[in-house]
Amino acid sequence: MKKTAITCVVGLALVGCGGSDPSGGTGSGGGISTSGETGNSDGVESVDSNGDGDGNSGPGDTGDGDSGDGDGDPGDGDGNDNGDDDGGTGNQKWDTLSVPDSAFNCGGGGNDEPEFSYLWAANSTEGTISKIDTKTVTEVGRYIVRPDSAGSPSRTSVSLSGHVAVANRNGGVTKIYATEESCEESNGMPGIQTSNNNQALAWGTEECVAWHKPMQYSSQRPVAWGAGQYNEGTCFWEDEELWTAATQGQTIDVYVLDGDDGSTKEMITIEGVSAGYYGIYGGAVDGNGDFWGSQLGTGKLIRVNREDMTYDIWQMPVSGYGMTVDSEGFVWTCSSNVARFDPETETWETAAVGGYTGCMADAGEDGLLWMSQGGNGVIGVNRDTLQVEKTWAAGGSYGISIDFEGYVWAVAYGSTVSKIDPESGQFWTYNGLVGAYTYSDMTGYALTNVGSPSG
Are 111 and 8 contacting, i.e. CB atoms less than 8 angstroms apart? Predict the structure, then answer.
């Protein structure tokens, strides 16, 4: 069993040091822009808070690059934007910029901040994944994620050790180490060869690719880490597992992979659900270690129970695209509508909020659900009332994630990723991505937020 060390983590089990100013440097090949400030010589420039900023046509972009699901929702090639801007500004104070409490601390270290924090964005058209330092909003690594570079990666998931896994839509899963200290000699050259900017090394030269598992499917979307077991005495995460789901024809297979080497630990075929082309589209793991998967449109919501690999199926009441699980155990599906599922009562609450695609909940029972609003930025939805409380601009918005400081991140379809202050709406952008498409747990925040397994 390979063990992964993590040092004195508070809140998120992710590790990036940098100055407290998110605009403290320029990105490799992309640069930083910040809203509400004048340009200066350090590469920071003023941006129009109403602009898309991603170099594309905004919420009408082509989405997934596939043929579309026919439900009239955004993404996957239909080029349709059903979201509308409600024009609200939202003045409710929200203290998200604090590190959430966590039991996952290394004993006695006394360090109050994670040592690094990265956001991982898939460059689908390039066949790579970018590592973005969330402190400095710069790209600090880029990696090919399939030997032929033709995987069309999309969903990313970050483990509590801080390492990332990415699913290739054309089949296959790859794990990449977050730190050079974890990488292993494999190419016969002295030292560790790894990317440290926006240029990927050739497959076989890059030594921070932990493993690649080829999988022969026509559609492979979701990927989600489970928590694993934390050893407080050694500060190691052990027995981390990775979930993925894939489709061939009308067959939907759900896998549990060994996080150390990518080997299959469990697999089950879901019966009684129409696969369509995409099968299970979005995925997340809850605090019990169970896997939740959602389908496009008004499809099915599926839970696979980790203990015995049995599964439960519910009908989704409104069209969904993105999905997440919050700290209270509620499951959310997101599109122009938002839907909240209570696993205890097996009931849904829905509202039309003018969203778009991805979503993620912040920490705490009084927090917000943050949703993409396409070229219009992001919205914050009250998780009790399902009413919009915040509307902030960004440099385009498709996938949503949150970092360990509570900043909201939006990855646009195209080239731009934005870091957004949830209290003031100020945002910073990096514009060096290539055909970006991702809206899963890009930082590991969602996994940390749901807590450790209760059983």
Answer: yes
